[in-house]
Amino acid sequence: MNVLWVFAHPEPRSLSGALRDDGLRTLRELGHAVRESDLYAMKWNPVVDAADFGAEAGDERLVVGATSARAHARGELSPDIVAEQEKLDWADAVVVQFPLWWYGLPAILKGWFDRVFVKGFGYGVRAEDGRTLRYGEGRLAGKRAMVVLTAGAREPAMGPRGVNGALDEVLFPLHHGTLFYAGMSVLEPVPVFGADRVSAEHFADARQLLRERLRTLETAEPIPFRPQNGGDYDDDLVLRPDRAPGATGLAIHLTGKP
């Protein structure tokens, strides 16, 4: 497999950095080809502005979706965006690694998605019959994605009744609203809890877990999100009454959930 590792941590000597190094080494030992986007080392610019879109932006009011789509189609996106899109085109799988900050991604990683997943590439893709291809379909369909994250909270506090909220729900915007939205098959995440007080034993366990998950990167079953165009949703994109009848909440967007 071709694997792109997107890394968003400001300190390479951190726990995250050590896991990243071991993960890349493991992938190579398994025979995979690896590329990396180390966003802090690259000094990645996370801010969307008119300079992203070349001559297409012009002097008129910037409408990011429409302008980015035209720039993408005409090959006028800025070189740093194009370089990341080429990595994604090359990749069969993407590992996205970050520390969980304020229930979300570090700004530099959020900005990577904002700038790279432009309309016509990450979203806004249509089939020949006019259907919008998203939530399980799209330009990035067929690629796998797996999140590796560190969190300061202990594991019980990010469980079903934990004060921080269940991890699968905290990650829903990234898993479902970004990666799956763009068509990717999303694997269960690799979390490391209590990251600011990890013992040597805890680190060894985390490293072993990551290695095991990388060994099954090609074969693991993805999270069973319902595809938009699979018949589960009506014309208003609302789950049909006979699917998860009477239930609400994020879990209803998984197949087989009551």
* Major sheet attributes: 6 strands, parallel
- Give the beta-strand count: 8
CATH architecture of the largest domain: 3-Layer(aba) Sandwich
- Put simply, the count of helices is 8
Based on secondary structure, the structural category is alpha/beta
Could you state the CATH homologous superfamily of the largest domain?
Answer: Flavodoxin domain
Mean pLDDT: 93
> What is the class of the largest domain in the CATH system?
Alpha Beta
Large-scale geometry:
globular
Distance between the termini: 35 Å
Domain unit count: 2
Strand content: 5-15%
CATH-defined fold name of the largest domain: Rossmann fold
Low-confidence stretches: none
Helix content range: 25-40%
Helix and strand string, N-terminal first?
A: EHEHHHEHEEEHHEEH
Plain-language structure description:
Helix 1 runs parallel beside helix 8. The protein is α/β, with parallel strands linked by helices. It is built from eight helices and eight strands; from the N terminus they run βαβαααβαβββααββα. Strands 1, 2, 3, 6, 7 and 8 form a six-stranded parallel beta sheet that branches. It has a two-stranded antiparallel sheet with strand order 4-5. Helices cover 31% and strands 14% of the residues. The protein folds into two domains: 222 residues, Rossmann fold (3-Layer(aba) Sandwich), CATH 3.40.50.360; 33 residues, no CATH class.
